[in-house]
Write a structure and sequence with these properties.
By secondary structure, this protein is of the alpha/beta class. The chain is built from 13 helices and 6 strands. The protein has a 6-stranded parallel β-sheet, with helices on one face. The two termini are about 20 Å apart.
């Protein structure tokens, strides 16, 4: 179903476990378009269960892009994602009017919304140095150094994300300047319009959904998947909730029950950080996840309005 003559990206965002996949598929089927994933972990083909990749049945309903499209063995970041997605969209919009983008990775979504600042290319040896230091000394070491060398960035960074902290320290070592000094927040012009849909619900309800999903992941074989990824455990992609806790269990430092509880606790904490991130964006229109018809009607009304305001 087509409503406008303009090119539109309808973005579905929100915390983990909220139901973004289901809504994205409903929107894409209604609009007769495809889906672009903006999930920084679902992009890796070796990480399926722990990243809650859509099921084969879901993937068969609508064509998806940037799902299981890269290898966990390859270096990847939001800047590369921006380059690949914009190239893809420039081609996609020659044949289609709309696409639905779905994901909870704020940096990847913003890379498409407004672009990533041009940053210096980090030398391989510097990147390896900070990766090794994190492995040896832990995240507290990265936190302390980032707070000391770049207090401006430290105030807003996700302090539990080693990849973000490593990036700041890499840039500082390579340039002698704080990472925050490169973040100009200059918005890049896009050839398409963006409508942002956010999903959120009662906090206790969300937490219950997250806990149940972790149990489902374990039943689906998360332990076995994590075991198969042990050779890649030092890659940035594996420093994420669901895998690092299982690695602790496989190391023998905690029990399996403790690992599962940690996954639930860390997933809930991650959801809180996601909500805080998305709440900063005044362009997001918020809905309860079970209000699909209301959201569909809203999209039907908004796309023509956005076209008329061109």
């Amino acid at each position: 179903m087509s409503f406008t003559k303009e090119n539109f990206l309808i973005s579905v965002c929100g915390p983990t476990g909220i139901g973004k996949t289901r809504l994205a598929i409903t929107l894409a089927r209604t609009l007769g378009c495809e889906i672009l994933s903006a999930d920084s972990r679902q992009i890796f083909r070796e990480m399926t269960i722990g990243t809650a990749v859509p099921s084969e049945e879901e993937l068969s309903q609508v064509k998806h892009h940037f799902i299981r499209s890269h290898s966990v063995a390859d270096y990847y970041n939001a800047s590369l994602f921006e380059q690949e997605v914009i190239t893809f969209l420039n081609d996609y919009f020659k044949q289609h009017q709309q696409i639905v983008m779905v994901g909870g990775s704020g940096m990847y979504l913003n890379a498409v919304y407004t672009g990533i600042d041009d940053l210096p290319t980090i030398k391989t040896e510097i990147r390896k140095k900070w990766h090794d230091l994190y492995t040896e000394k832990g995240i507290e070491y990265l936190q302390q150094l980032t707070a000391q060398l770049d207090p401006v960035y430290y105030e807003k960074v996700d302090r539990l994300n080693p990849k973000r902290l490593q990036k700041a320290l890499e840039v500082y070592e390579q340039t002698g300047k704080p990472y925050s000094s490169f973040l100009t927040n200059s918005k890049k012009l896009r050839s398409f319009k963006i409508l942002k849909i956010g999903l959120n619900t009662d906090r206790n309800k969300l937490y219950d959904q997250i806990n149940k999903r972790v149990d489902q992941m374990m039943q689906a074989g998360l332990l076995e998947e994590a075991r198969s990824l042990l050779p890649f455990r030092d890659m940035s992609a594996l420093k994420t909730v669901g895998y690092r806790e299982i690695f602790e269990y496989l190391d023998g430092t905690i029990s399996l029950d403790e690992a599962i509880q940690k996954i639930k606790d860390h997933s809930r904490a991650y959801a809180r950080r996601q909500i805080t991130w998305f709440r900063r964006d005044p362009e997001i229109h918020w809905f309860e996840p079970n209000r699909e018809q209301t959201i569909l009607e809203f999209v039907r009304q908004e796309l023509p309005k956005m076209e008329s305001n061109d």
